[in-house]
Write a structure and sequence with these properties.
Elements lengths: L1 E5 L5 H21 L22 E6 L5 E9 L5 H4 L16 E9 L11 H16 L4 E7 H9 L4 E3 L4 E3 L2 E9 L2 H11 L24
Helix pairs in contact: 3-5
GO molecular function: N-acyl homoserine lactone synthase activity
Enzyme class: transferase
EC number: 2.3.1.184
Length: 217
């Protein structure tokens, strides 16, 4: 599998991959998970945070087919946690927002995860997110999810701290939390998943993929 890092639209191939990502997200989060507030007639899951600040980590297989993705948004710019889910945050962030990023829209293509407890695509994406955070000098990542995702992250050896008590959203207990970013956390997720192949492309990255201040902005 190969990790594609997209921030801005450098070429037609990146544009097409990002569009496929939006349609897959709609299939996963709206059609399968039932997030009706995200439903759009064009079948694309796109919100206010799919903008120039966002970095998309997209996983493709050997045939170039998109199999999963995630979105990373800097915490010192408008983000989903502090704009839409700010009511879930009851405590302080662990460090200045410039040292953190919000992790959203994690998914694996449905036909790649059905019937499997821990798909390799999921393992690769978990590792890729931690690798990327380390490469950007981040010290923590925030996220909003069901309790299951929090438990899954803890199971791979990550230090996860809730930012407030869970609330019922879409019929499920939902919580905001932060993950410590460290080499130890990367080693833990690699050991837990068995995915040891580095995911980040060899540097130097193209200029359009480089953050301006060492952060995914």
């Amino acid at each position: 599998m190969k990790l594609q890092i997209i921030r801005g639209l450098a070429d037609r191939q990146s544009h097409d991959l990002l569009e496929e990502n939006f349609r897959l997200r709609h299939r996963v989060f709206v059609d399968m998970e039932g997030w009706e507030a995200l439903r759009r007639p064009d079948g694309r899951d796109v919100d206010d945070f799919d903008n120039a600040d966002a970095t998309h980590l997209l996983m493709t297989d050997t045939a170039g087919k998109l199999v999963g993705g995630s979105r990373i948004t800097p915490l010192d710019r408008p983000n989903l946690l502090q704009t839409v889910f700010n009511g879930l945050v009851h405590g302080e962030l662990p460090a200045h927002p410039s040292l953190g990023a919000d992790w959203t829209r994690f998914y694996v293509r449905p036909d790649r995860r059905e019937g499997r407890r821990r798909a390799p695509e999921s393992a690769a994406l978990f590792c890729a997110v931690m690798e990327y955070a380390l490469s950007q000098g981040l010290s923590y990542i925030t996220f909003v999810s069901s309790i299951y995702m929090l438990e899954h992250g803890t199971a791979v050896g990550w230090r996860i701290t809730p930012l407030g008590p869970p609330v019922i959203s879409e019929g499920k207990p939902t919580v905001a939390a932060w993950i410590e970013v460290s080499e130890a956390a990367l080693g833990a997720v690699r050991r837990a998943t068995g995915w040891v192949t580095p995911m980040l492309p060899d540097g130097p990255w193209p200029a359009e993929h480089l953050p301006d201040r060492g952060l995914p902005v």
